[in-house]
C-alpha cells in the first residue's frame, strides 16, 4: 500500500507545489485547503498526470477544531492511513507595532500556530492507532528564529511553531513519529512575498522593484529560497534516511541563518 501524505494549505502556491512533489515521490496525497475548490483542482491536476485516485481534495479551516476533526475523519475514510503530515498553511500581516491591529496579530497566531497544533493532534491519533512511524513537518520561516521588523504577529507565531515542534517530538518519540520545522528563507517569487513588496519598500526606503535584490544581497549564497529547495528537504526528512532525527528546525536560508 502506498504511503499517504496530508498537506494542509495545499491548494495554492508552495503548498500545491509540495502536493505535486510528494505525489511524484510515490505518495497518495490528501490536498487540504481553506479554499476547497483550489484543493480539488490541485488534486485533479495530480490525477491527470499520475493516475486517478492518487490525490483527493478536501476543504478545511485549520483554525477550527471541528473542521480539522472532520478532515481527519474524511481522510481516514478515503485513505485508511496517514504517514506524513505537512502543515503548509500560513499568513503574514505587516505593520509597525504601533499600528498592528489585534485582529491581525490573532489571525497570525491562529493560522500559523493554532492550526498546526490542531492538525498535528488529530493526525497523530491516526498514526498512533495504526502503529505508523509517521512524519510531521511544519513549513516554518527564518522569522521563527530571528525577529522580523513590522512582522510581529508572523514572527511570534513562527517562534511558537519551533517550540511546538520540539514538544511534539518529545511526546511522539515513543511511537517512532518524528517532527520537524523547515525554516524557509525568503520565497521571493511567492505571491505572499510579492504582495508585501509595497510595504517592504516603504519600510526600507526603496522602490518596489529594488526590494528583491535587497533581500538577495543578505544571503551568502546570493539567491532567494525556491520551492524546489523546500521540497528537497521535506522529502529527505520524511524518509527513513532521517529516521534518527527529530525535533529539529532546519534552515533553508542560503546561509542567512546558521543556528
UniProtKB/TrEMBL annotation:
CDD domains: SDH_SDR_c_like. GO terms for molecular function: sorbitol-6-phosphate 2-dehydrogenase activity. Keywords: Oxidoreductase. Its EC number is 1.1.1.140. This is Sorbitol-6-phosphate dehydrogenase. PANTHER family: 5-KETO-D-GLUCONATE 5-REDUCTASE (PTHR43669), SHORT-CHAIN TYPE DEHYDROGENASE_REDUCTASE-RELATED (PTHR43669:SF8). Belongs to the short-chain dehydrogenases/reductases (SDR) family. InterPro entries: NAD(P)-bd_dom_sf, Sc_DH/Rdtase_CS, SDR_fam. It comes from Acerihabitans arboris. It comes from the Bacteria.
Amino acid at each position: 500500500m502506498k504511503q499517504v501524505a496530508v498537506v494542509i494549505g495545499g491548494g495554492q502556491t508552495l503548498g500545491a507545489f509540495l502536493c505535486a512533489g510528494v505525489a511524484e515521490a510515490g505518495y497518495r496525497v490528501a490536498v487540504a485547503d481553506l479554499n476547497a475548490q483550489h484543493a480539488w483542482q490541485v488534486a485533479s491536476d495530480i490525477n491527470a498526470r499520475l493516475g486517478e485516485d492518487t490525490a483527493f481534495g478536501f476543504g478545511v479551516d485549520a483554525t477550527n477544531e471541528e473542521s480539522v476533526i472532520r478532515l481527519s475523519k474524511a481522510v481516514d475514510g478515503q485513505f485508511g492511513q496517514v504517514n506524513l503530515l505537512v502543515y503548509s498553511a500560513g499568513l503574514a500581516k505587516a505593520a509597525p507595532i504601533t499600528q498592528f491591529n489585534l485582529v491581525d496579530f490573532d489571525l497570525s497566531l491562529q493560522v500559523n500556530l493554532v492550526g498546526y497544533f490542531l492538525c498535528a493532534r488529530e493526525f497523530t491519533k491516526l498514526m498512533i492507532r495504526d502503529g505508523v512511524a509517521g512524519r510531521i513537518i511544519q513549513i516554518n520561516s527564518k522569522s521563527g528564529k530571528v525577529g522580523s521588523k513590522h512582522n510581529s504577529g508572523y514572527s511570534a507565531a513562527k517562534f511558537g511553531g519551533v517550540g511546538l515542534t520540539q514538544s511534539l517530538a518529545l511526546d511522539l518519540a515513543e511511537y517512532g513519529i518524528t517532527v520537524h520545522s523547515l525554516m524557509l528563507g525568503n520565497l521571493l517569487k511567492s505571491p505572499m512575498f510579492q504582495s508585501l513588496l509595497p510595504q517592504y519598500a516603504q519600510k526600507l526606503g526603496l522602490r518596489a522593484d529594488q526590494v528583491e535584490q535587497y533581500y538577495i544581497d543578505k544571503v551568502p549564497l546570493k539567491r532567494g529560497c525556491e520551492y524546489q529547495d523546500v521540497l528537497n528537504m521535506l522529502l529527505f526528512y520524511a524518509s527513513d534516511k532521517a529516521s534518527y532525527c527529530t525535533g529539529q528546525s532546519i534552515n533553508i536560508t542560503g546561509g542567512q541563518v546558521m543556528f
